[in-house]
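Repro:
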Amino acid sequence: MEFYNVITKTINKGQCIGCSYGTVLLEEEPENKIEKISWENLKEQYAKHGIDLSFNVWNLKKGRVISFFIDKITPFFLKEWEKDIKEWKEPLDITIEIVYEKKTYMTIEKVLKWHDIEKAVQYLKEKGLTVCPYESK
């Protein structure tokens, strides 16, 4: 069981539009993923990754529109970011790249504040640490 940093990149027409960062605690080493988003699978991909993506989807009378967020890494002159993508005007060329990196440093305080305490205690036991000083190994 290990902690991993998760970096989710939103790429439009080959240009990175934005990134989101998080931490996960997993039992097995994960594989990096690349997923394509098309107009056909947009609803499922947005439901699956929505909070990590750098855009919103708007449902209008004419069709759907994708509007990108401003991100610290997004230059203002980037043409792929400047305009919305309209379903009735152009095809969708968005890729999601999910990269996992093993965390080299995690404090005990952060482990104990982890939202799934059972996994956190299991992680500490695997590392040879106990939560209770009277608990035997």
